[in-house]
Design brief:
The structure is a homodimer. Chain A has about 230 residues and is an all-alpha fold. Chain A has 2 domains: about 60 residues, Homeodomain-like (Arc Repressor Mutant, subunit A), CATH 1.10.10; about 160 residues, Tetracycline Repressor, domain 2. Helix content of chain A is about 60%, strand content about 0%. The first copy, chain A, is built from 9 helices and no strands. Chain A is globular and about 65 Å long. The interface between A and B is large, with 60 and 60 residues. The first copy, chain A, binds a DNA duplex (18 and 18 nucleotides) through helix 1 and helix 3. Chains A, B: InterPro entries: Homeodomain-like_sf, HTH-type_TetR-like_transc_reg, HTH_TetR, MT1864/Rv1816-like_C, Tet_transcr_reg_TetR-rel_C_sf. Chains A, B: GO terms for molecular function: DNA-binding transcription factor activity; transcription cis-regulatory region binding. Chains A, B: It comes from Caballeronia novacaledonica. Chains A, B: It holds the Pfam family TetR_C_33.
Chain lengths: ~230, ~230
DNA sequence: GTCTATAGTGTGATAGAC
DNA sequence: GTCTATCACACTATAGAC
């Protein structure tokens, strides 16, 4: 790294301060969203929380939707981390089990973040490529990474001839994802899926979508539901 | 029916007119929601569309959320009708196939109505029983009827010993529902589930959740995805 | 029952002074 | 870079005249 003169150092400090404020805005936004949901994150409320004027926000983010996009990126990174923690599991079925559970746990633990990531209405001007005012990029753009981790496991299962379905592995991956998302989404909406705890639905879904690891199957032996808590 | 005097007839006419206007409000609301989503259904816009003042609406509906509840009820009735059209199918697996397809078709054909029914955030004051300002009743209250139609089929499968999973039929029903909902929800959000058409995901999911009817399985024979259109 | 008028509150975003 | 002040809207819901 080259030595810098006083001039460069000063601009460097400015850049750091600037970046620090941006981080602070994101930090507070993250907490508000986590507590009250993105819908109730207003620029005024946010400005008051960080003790700046609303106008100051627009020096760091082009729009409210721009903040949404940043938070979504954070969320996707966090979810991907939760997945990466299990990539070391050699057996693809066991790995899928761990990742599936991690996915639903993530969604139930941070419902509002999950909502922002996966349950926001698509951009109205969807036809236009790229990104719109609300920061809706292509939803898959970030989720694709985590999806591919699931798909990888299915590819391995197929290669080992342990995938009963004849469908393409990527199709199975999307099917399982849809299943997990459905569990989270319906649970988040409150009264839906009233009978069965999420944990059990996850087990059932994983078993439905690929042959379980030997000795891992039939965790729930009887037809009666367990009394495991919903979350 | 008793003859009515002129007095009763007049009040009868009033009641009919009143009911007619209520229906008209609902009709226009339904169309606006279908086209632009419930979020953009404002009382002003609605009033202008029916050529009344905004205040007139409040004589027929307690609030905007009250309209939402009415539309939700309509939607649930419509979905239940789509299900009832298949109750005559004797074989429970074939019936589930038809109902599952009908469910996803409904969701993709009327995305905004589906959103209103199943993808709205739960009421903030959920702890309080009953209904809130936004007309969010217990989401399951109406969906329960359709869910029980799915559960019935699983009960029959279990009775015929054709349900491989040992889980409770109602748990399987909720699992399958979650799966179908996930497909619709992710497809509605635009870019998610990019590779696989919804129709194929539905087939895969149905096959995953219960033994398919003989001769019906393996519609998709190869690992490559078909080029069936997404909707 | 229906209207006009408006209260009351919120919003995102910007212009222009400093 | 930050602020004040404000634009230009939107919204639900109600009061009170007719």
């Amino acid at each position: 790294m080259p030595r810098m003169g006083p001039q460069e150092r000063r601009t460097e400090q400015r850049r750091e301060q600037r970046q620090a404020l941006r981080e602070r805005i994101l930090e507070v936004s993250r907490e508000i969203v986590k507590r009250e949901g993105f819908a109730s994150l207003s620029m005024r409320k946010l400005a008051e929380a960080i003790d700046y004027s609303p106008a100051a926000l627009y020096l760091h983010f082009k729009s409210r939707g721009d903040i949404a996009r940043a938070l979504r990126r954070e969320g996707h990174a966090s979810l991907r981390d939760a997945f990466l923690a299990h990539t070391s599991i050699a057996d693809p079925a066991a790995r899928l089990n761990a990742m599936g559970r991690a996915y639903v746990e993530f969604g139930l633990a941070e419902p509002e973040t999950y909502r922002l990531m996966f349950m926001e209405p698509a951009s109205s001007a969807e036809a236009a490529a790229g990104v719109d005012d609300n920061g809706n990029g292509r939803a898959a753009e970030s989720g694709a990474a985590t999806l591919s981790l699931i798909a990888d496991a299915f590819v391995e299962l197929r290669a080992a001839d342990r995938l009963p379905s004849r469908a393409a592995p990527v199709a199975c991956a999307e099917g399982l994802w849809a299943n997990l998302h459905g569990i989270v989404a319906l649970k988040l909406n409150g009264a839906a899926l009233p009978e069965t705890p999420a944990a059990m639905l996850v087990e059932l879904s994983l078993d439905a979508w690929f042959a379980p690891v030997k000795g891992t199957e039939l965790r729930f032996s009887g037809p009666d539901r367990s009394d495991t808590s919903t979350r």
